[in-house]
Predict the structure.
Amino acid sequence: MRKKILFGVCIILFVGAIVWYALQKPKEENKDELKIGVSLYIKDDAFVNSIVSQMQTRAVIYEQRTGKKVALNISCADGSQREQNKQIEKYISLQYDVICVNLVDRTNAAPLIDQVHEANIPLIFFNREPVKEDIFRQEDVYYIGTDAKETGIQQGQAVADLYEKYTKLMDKNQDGVLQYVILEGEMGHQDTALRCEYVLQTLQQEGILLEKLDADTADWLYSPAEAITEEWAKEFGDDIELVLSNNDEMALGAVSALKAQNISAAIFGIDATPAGREAVRNGEMWATVDCDAEQQGKILLDMVTALATDKITEKEGIKESRYVRVPVTTYVSENIK
């Protein structure tokens, strides 16, 4: 709770600084419409879609409060960095006020950053984090998201806490070792690497013995995770005691596959999407780490509307404050059987 209060104060100061500085400068024009370009890496990411949905909700509230229209142009790159670059070029040519990017290739952000900077448009990355050197490559570049390390730690802590409480239920063969599989996100994505590393490190630090049965990448998606888990169910059967998933969509795919084979296992996700929360409530998933899509969408829209009112590239007092890290919490089932 203390973390959330401190975070709230920091966000108020951060966004407030942007607004304050913007008010110190005359506007180029008194616009009745703010044009915001949003480019998503794919259309099927449930967590990202939750962030965008909250942006849209907040945009309506902003319009009602200020009388200014917020035009959100949301496009999808379908996993192609080339297509995303074209979308950004379109936003630049149409002189959008702020551009928000859910990046396809986190290692290829530099050309895009330079292009947007040349057009004197603020740029906010969200959910998929560029490398740090690129964030600080130019002024007016920001990132909003969670700390991937912390999500892995909290997932591991949730497993440890529930293992202590439900040892016999989780350790089905009573050998004192948890036989596990892990569903990984996109290869090369920093969240995949950090979530995998720190969930296992946390469990080891808690003294829980683990035996890895297998791991595979399902690219954050339900259907590939369901197919992978079906194969694991055929190979390992009831030996699967623990499923660690880098996000909820893949965890839900595992839920479906194991249920079809009548195999019970402790399944843990990350994101706390609406479907993930429902699965936790009914006991199909044991827990998920809440990355607070609602708060991320709210902060994103608040920053967008503040930056859109002033396009000055240096903002005194916040020019080094490029990152907003939304704190995470754990959502645990009360219906474990």
Summary: Residues 209 and 334 are 25 Å apart (CA to CA). The radius of gyration is 21 Å.
